[in-house]
User: Fold this.
Amino acid sequence: MKSLVGFHAVIGRLRQKPDTVSEIYVDAERNDGRARDLREMAKKAGVRVIPVDSKRLDGMSGGARHQGVVAQAQPIDMPQFIEDVLEELTEPPLLLILDGVQDPHNLGACLRVADGAGAHAVIAPKDRSVGLTTAAIKVASGAAEAVPYIVVTNLARTMRDLKDRNIWLVGTADDAPKTIFQEKLDGALGLVMGAEGEGLRRLTRESCDLLVSLPMMGTVESLNVSVASGVCLYEARRRRLGK
Assistant:
């Protein structure tokens, strides 16, 4: 069993795979509309709701902000290798590649936007990455159970393998001569985003087919990695929808 923390994560699982949820623990003092809606949804799904005190929820949530709700659920089997994802696709791949994102909230937000934009997988290296922590899963709001999160031991090698499959790899860099709105984003595509503050590592950067920048029209110099991922993924999706 694994713990699902917060309303978004619990409701997302109840909507997607209610049969995998064994029981839900709710703060006994919460009787607001949101808590009542959750109880009703759980009742329709045949899932037991157990009222507990907030201190017990604190221990169950592993330190993540639980909002008064934690569920115990069976892990969902997700693809572990990118090859398994690619073989099942019926459209050109749209991938998000994260080079060393270490903040769980950023990772969760990246997964959420990847799900929203219809990305087929998120790829990250084993080292210098936060991994799917309880906090990341909570922020993902159900996307961690919908978008395959593929952890690889050697990111540069994985990128070379993707290029061998004719997947165009587009990295983001502030010094790139053209913006993402000016460059090709057609066909099979992997968007490569750098870590918070550091950007792409040298080998990752050299493994990209193309580098693009995001036009910054105001006073700030850069965007949060999850926001930048959203801009890039939705631009790629927009072009696909336009066709």
